[in-house]
Amino acid sequence: MGLKPSDFKTDVFADWCPGCGDYGIMNGLQMAFAELGLEPHQIVLVSGIGCSGKEAHNVKCYGVHTLHGRTLPFAMGIKVANPNLEVVAIGGDGDGLGIGAGHFVNAGRRDIDMTYIIHNNGVYGLTKGQASPTLRLGVKTKSLPRANINEAVNPIALALISGYTFVARSYAYDVRHLKDTIKAAVQHKGLAFIDCLQPCPTYNNVNTKDWYAGEDRKDASGKPQSRLYKLEEASFDPTVRDWNEDFKKKVAALEKAQEWGDRIPIGIFYKNTLEPTFQERFSKRIPFYMTTPPAKQKLCDDKGYSHVNLQAFVDDLKTS
Amino acid sequence: MVKKQMVKDSINWMAGGPQGSGVDTAANVFGRACGYGGLYVFGRREYHSNIKGLHSYFHLRMSNKEILSNINDVDLLAAFDAETVVRHLNEVVPEGGIIVDSQQMNTKVLGIPTLPPEFREELQKFMNENNVGETLNDWLEYAKKRKVQVFPVPYMELLNQIGQKLGVTQISKITRMINVLTIGVSLALFKYDRGLVEKAVRETFSEKAKIADMNVAALNHAYAYAEATFKDNFKHRLEKTDANEERIFITGNQAVAMGKVLGGCRVQTYYPITPAADESEYLEAHEILKTSGEDEAIIVVQTEDEIAAINSASGAALAGARAATSTSGPGFSLMAEGLSWAGNNEVPVVITYYQRGAPATGLPTRNGQADLRFVMHAGHGEFPRIILASGDIRECFYDAAKVFNLAEKYQMPAIHLMDKAMANCSQTYPVFDYSKFKIDRGQLLGEKDLEGKEYRRFSFTENGISPRVPLGTKNGVHWYTGDEHNETGHISEEPKNRVMMTEKRMKKLELAEKEIPVEDKLAFFGDQGSENIVVSWGSPKGAIIEALRLLKAEGLSAGFMQVRLMSPFPADLIGKALAGKKRVINVEDNYCGQLGEVIKEKTGIAPNYHILKYTGRPMTTTEVYDALKLILTDKASKRQVLMYGS
């Protein structure tokens, strides 16, 4: 087939502010889908509410733009009904870690074979810049009347302890890195999480593009020292090859997750394919689950009569 | 206080004891045993929101004719503990009996630790007014004066004998058999076929042969003891009869589960809540379905909350599975936003809604019908929905299947409205005939239908229904959004599109109203030509039908209209049925008379009488009969509030 990233574009006008990280994430998705050799109808992009929620309309594949915080439940339902679909859930940091935090944690327990990308910019953009759960204590972005009074959630650490089997971070302005991370996440067997850092050019005047690029910390030659560094270039090995090393790898990932400020790691923190996915767990009980999942069952004959024989229930209940 | 025994062709047995002492199991064994003997059984289960210790009871009514409800009378009370005697003494009819632990006779009634203070006050008042002493023995003496027979049985002594016989010394294992002991005594008093009871015990414990053996031994020991001790002292007899048909003894939870499977439900999500969770667990236990050869299974997912439950179910429905979630009031409150999304996106998701005592946590294990208004309007904005309200366990089964057809044909969320009384009551029925039920998936397109065409999920059509395509279908890529959207499913805030989309969604309701058959909207019983008409919905149905039969025998006539479809609301049909009636009597388990209010709002006809109950206990035939009789003989106030039940 050989689809190009442009084959995953729609004619819907992307209405984000100039310089918004969402453009990068949208491009990353389109590039990753093309390189993975997927066709639009094989993918379901599930989004939440906020600027990032609209992204589902800008990518040509099945798009389900849901409710605030409920991206993961919708995505889970879709994947459970038809596990052969490639399900990618996207949402903002407030969506996934504030209003939807319960779903974030519980999705990890199920290891559903899908991908979840959080657009992490520290603010609620569409409601004009309130602090999101990833904004640090004491930070005052420009539309906050007071400095943030809450401590931040650490998305990487939360994903790790919630049971996500692929935990990564990327950066919206490094589209190549993001695209590769998305590809790895989609290809991962199990629930993959990407914490995608992105500036909000309108409301987050603290963690800006220049801040990430290290424009404020130039070396002697005047070259900016980027705050971001790549785990894969720092000889960090995130892969669990044996259950015996799982704990050690998780602890190493948690340590890495603490880094912030002048050195922020991006890349894959943790990867474990030993854990049985939700789909594998069901398949163990229902051998035909993957071949005839709920969405593909015919239910009835051509005349509409149900295939089901209720005798098993009747045998339980009969009084004769 | 004590009603005369009104319905002579049934026998009523009640077992009561602390939660966790096997009251349910006892009722199940007893019910099965009666079923094996060809009898019809109606069972009502009452329990506290508690795991162990608080009072629970099961009221079983048996007859050789089909029975539809409970009555107030108890012919034989099997009391596992003193509290059961105290709570139900006055329900036992003269000539009825009480099986009681003879070793508890000196128990001081007001000292029973599980009695709440407000109930203790009531007891004190009763004791003062009737000159009843403080011990259980005093209470039983009072009962005897009312010609109630008392059958004292030394529970622990018998249990120890049984334990010795079986070589079991562990006290907890022995006391667990109190329930079977009382069944043995009960059925010996009734002179019922011991073989059938033994069969019921074995069937109930079919997966644990050892426990079955123990219980059979206990049963036989108790049966023999009672036969030898009480001989023919008890006047009521329970006689087996020929059933000559296959029957089931089934709860509403089970009927819904069976109906869902038949109706094609293949994904069920839920968050644990009483009285809905039993249905999901029952489904999960049967996940691989028996079919005519095809691979079919239902996936049951316990989600982290009801918000996830509704939205996962919607996701599954979009992917093309028939999907449902099951909950009660508090859970449905959390689902409101998801319901609105499903309405906006025309998602055929099914919600089984078991009402219970509300508001807030309310009476979590008790009955209520106070959520009608809520379910009709829940969710922000205007969007269409189907609401189908079952009135008995048989209807639960068929409606649970049917509701999926309605959801998919009209592409809207569909609510199957239930209540706790139906969920937890159990009833004997001939095996449900489902040979005529057909699955209708509405306008559902596949890959081939779409070849070479441009597909729009929300295309404007004459009747508002746009053909649906499951996510993942080749040639069918489309979008959904909670925002207002255009035909393709992309966000649109254009006024003209907004109007067209709103009208498209809403007019599907007109189509549904036109197409849904009358029998799914309303059901009529009794004398339709009468100047009196009872209107009701949900679980009071059985009690109303039985009460009307009794009244008819006394020359008092009334019709009964059961409202089944709450949305689209069949206002025209109801208006016609009520026009010109002298007495319109609204019967509901709530304070406001919500159905009556809705009827008034939609038809302009207000019921002129209300029979309401909000104790959390379902209506009985007896009390509906009493209230209707007062109304039909012009002796009643406009509002009758029913109070029966512990």
Keywords:
heterodimer; A: 320 residues; alpha/beta; Rossmann fold; 11 helices; 31% helix; B: 646 residues; 8-stranded mixed sheet; 7-stranded mixed sheet; disordered N terminus
Descriptive overview:
The complex is a heterodimer of chains A (320) and B (646). Chain A is an alpha/beta fold. Chain A has a single domain, classed as 3-Layer(aba) Sandwich (Rossmann fold), CATH 3.40.50.970. Helices cover 31% and strands 16% of the residues of chain A. Chain A has eleven helices and eleven strands. Chain A has helices at residues 21-35, 55-58, 71-81, 93-99, 101-110, 155-162, 175-187, 209-213, 246-257, 278-285, 311-317, and strands at 43-47, 62-65, 86-92, 115-120, 123-124, 130-131, 166-171, 192-197, 228-230, 239-240, 264-272. In chain A, helix 5 packs across helix 6. Chain B is α/β, with parallel strands linked by helices and 646 residues long. Chain B has four domains: 11-230, Pyruvate-ferredoxin oxidoreductase, PFOR, domain III (Pyruvate-ferredoxin Oxidoreductase, domain 3, 3-Layer(aba) Sandwich), CATH 3.40.920.10; 250-430, 3-Layer(aba) Sandwich (Rossmann fold), CATH 3.40.50.970; 447-515, no CATH class; 519-642, 3-Layer(aba) Sandwich (Rossmann fold), CATH 3.40.50.920. Chain B is 40% helix and 19% strand. In chain B, the strands form three sheets. In chain B, strands 6-5-4-1-3-2-14-7 form an eight-stranded mixed beta sheet, with helices on both faces. In chain B, strands 9-8-10-11-13-12-19 form a seven-stranded mixed beta sheet, sandwiched between helices. In chain B, helix 1 (23-36) packs parallel to helix 7 (178-189), helix 5 packs across helix 9 (209-230) and helix 8 (194-204) packs antiparallel against helix 9. The longest helix of chain B has 22 residues, at 209-230. Chain B is globular.
Summarize the structure.
Chain A is an alpha/beta fold and 320 residues long.
